[in-house]
Inverse folding.
């Protein structure tokens, strides 16, 4: 699995793709591998707002629940309905079709403290 | 109110930063949940073994586990040194095969090899191979071995025939569980107990403390590895390695024979709800037998299975797990295990308390549930009925066989029957569920 160069990553295994003032957020391939079979995804409602680093939802594998933290602050403008019916897509395409939420970012978002693809892969030892 | 956070922080400390979200952290805890947790907490202080047992379950399958912000711990698996953890004779085999391992009650155990779902289905449809060498073994021998086992366990040991086994419980004087166990009658003067990994030292001390008989209590765990072959093809696979006629071993019977040329105890028992065998063998022989069974089982579709699949399989079959359904503050009647308690067999440890509990009437009982709303009810979550706290979930998760989310919970006696609408509090939100008849899954009899 490749880690797209235009994404930014957190040490807690989320990614964000910033396009204009929209940020698309997901979890990394490394995260889905470590979690194993994902069976449930809990996402916030459109309109909810989150600060950087706050939990906005959870991902459940067969055995456990993990909170997901927002890499950037913003207001939820879309959630990925695909995951409601097919949570297993997160195991298949975590960097693409199985994005979690889209956020409207205040002034392009605060991307400080986020990792480049290269640094993230170094961080996870790949 | 204060008991749960103390327990939670104790758990966090043990797991180097793992934060466990307890009922009290996710809304208003039910009085029963508080009571339960406070009892556990007090016992943890008094008896470290109980604490260990609870922690084990907490790490492995507490859904409400919120992993530390420490990224190395976030995603569910410890990646720090496992040097301090105990290892089975198959540990290096698991690591070489790429299994993910977790700290399970102080043991570094495989939780999955490929995918918990795939492993689960392989056991239901073909066969699965489990390393359960962490389980403890206690041997009781001597002229009064029978009297000792009879006096410390709930089932009728005197009715066992040589070569027969049964499921039973060790209870405290107050009627709560020390452990749930398997008792095998090896001879009139020899009984072989298989006990939970994290309880083995506690069980041994408990039995020894009540040994007022002419019997020897021997801690035998180091002498046995245990490999379970489970699933509809288990018999065919194992038969290739033993002259014992496996088809003639009845469910919950065992033979002492040979597997792959070395002495082995072969029991037709298991923790999956499928047909299968549990093989007790010398630790030195375990890696070879593991490889041989995997190789010979390949054409049958065997897969190595971890504790993750073991848990989903046992939950579908409503088999209790110590630390979840069974604790020191739960008695066997509450746990819906009346069938392993033979009140008419004579006195045994805990009997008086059980009689009292029956006379007074049970206040709560274990019952199954299925989620009807979105979400997965996990252990530790509160259960509400008609807008009020009523009980708590002991185990819960997806059922890969039935493709729905199932669980077990304690509820007041009158509501612990199928068909009652309940709410499971998931992340502070009520999610609809309904109590259900169990087992959720039962294999068709051959």
């Amino acid at each position: 699995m490749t880690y797209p160069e235009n994404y930014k990553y957190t040490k807690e295994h989320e990614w964000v793709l910033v396009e204009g003032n929209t940020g698309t957020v997901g979890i990394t391939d490394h995260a889905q591998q470590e979690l194993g079979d994902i069976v449930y995804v809990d996402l916030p409602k459109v309109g909810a707002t989150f600060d950087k680093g706050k939990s906005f939802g959870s991902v459940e594998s067969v055995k456990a629940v993990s909170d997901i933290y927002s890499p950037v602050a913003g207001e939820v403008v879309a959630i990925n309905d695909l995951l409601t019916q097919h949570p297993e897509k997160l195991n298949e395409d975590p960097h693409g079709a199985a994005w979690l939420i889209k956020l409207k970012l205040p002034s392009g978002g605060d991307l400080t403290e986020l990792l480049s693809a290269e640094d993230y892969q170094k961080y996870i030892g790949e | 109110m204060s008991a749960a956070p103390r327990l939670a922080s104790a758990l966090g400390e043990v797991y180097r930063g793992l934060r466990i979200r307890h009922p009290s952290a996710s809304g208003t805890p039910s009085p029963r949940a508080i009571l339960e947790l406070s009892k556990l907490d007090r016992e943890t202080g008094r008896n470290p073994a109980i604490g260990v047992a609870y922690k084990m379950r907490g790490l492995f399958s507490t859904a409400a586990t919120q992993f530390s912000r420490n990224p190395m711990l976030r995603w569910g698996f410890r990646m720090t040194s496992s040097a301090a953890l105990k290892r089975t004779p198959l540990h290096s085999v698991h690591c070489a095969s790429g299994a993910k391992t977790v700290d399970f009650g102080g043991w570094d155990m495989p939780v999955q090899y490929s995918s918990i779902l795939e492993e689960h289905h392989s056991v239901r449809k073909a066969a699965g191979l489990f390393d359960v060498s962490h389980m403890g073994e206690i041997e009781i021998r001597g002229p009064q071995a029978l009297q000792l086992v009879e006096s410390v366990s709930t089932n009728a040991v005197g009715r066992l025939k040589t070569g027969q086994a049964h499921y039973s419980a060790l209870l405290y004087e107050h009627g709560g569980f020390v452990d749930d166990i398997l008792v095998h009658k090896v001879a009139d003067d020899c009984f072989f107990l298989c006990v939970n990994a994290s309880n083995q030292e506690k069980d041994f001390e408990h039995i020894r403390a009540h040994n007022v008989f002419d019997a020897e209590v021997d801690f035998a765990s180091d002498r046995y590895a245990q490999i379970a072959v489970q699933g509809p093809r288990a018999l065919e696979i194992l038969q290739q390695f033993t002259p014992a006629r496996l088809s003639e071993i009845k469910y919950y019977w065992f033979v002492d024979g040979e597997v792959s040329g070395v002495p082995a105890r072969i029991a037709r028992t298991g923790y999956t709800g499928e047909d299968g065998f549990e093989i007790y063998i010398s630790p030195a022989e375990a890696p070879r037998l593991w490889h041989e069974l995997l190789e010979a089982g390949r054409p049958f579709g065997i897969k190595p299975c971890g504790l993750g699949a073991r848990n989903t399989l046992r939950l579908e079959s409503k088999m209790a797990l110590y630390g979840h359904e069974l604790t020191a503050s739960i008695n066997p009647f509450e746990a819906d295990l009346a069938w392993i308690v033979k009140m008419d067999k004579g006195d045994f440890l805990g009997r008086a308390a059980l009689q009292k509990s029956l006379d007074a009437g049970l206040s709560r009982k274990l019952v199954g549930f299925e989620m009807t709303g979105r979400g997965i009810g996990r252990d530790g979550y509160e259960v509400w009925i008609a807008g009020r706290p009523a009980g708590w979930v002991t185990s819960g998760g997806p059922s890969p066989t039935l493709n729905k989310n199932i669980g077990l919970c304690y509820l007041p006696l009158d509501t612990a029957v199928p068909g009652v609408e309940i709410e499971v509090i998931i992340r502070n939100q009520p999610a609809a569920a309904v109590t259900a008849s169990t087992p959720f899954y039962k294999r068709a009899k051959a």
User: Anything to note?
Assistant: The two ends of chain B are 51 Å apart (CA to CA). Chain B touches chain A through 31 residues (CB under 8 Å). Chain B is about 25% helix and 30% strand. Residues 1-81 of chain B have pLDDT under 50 and may be disordered.
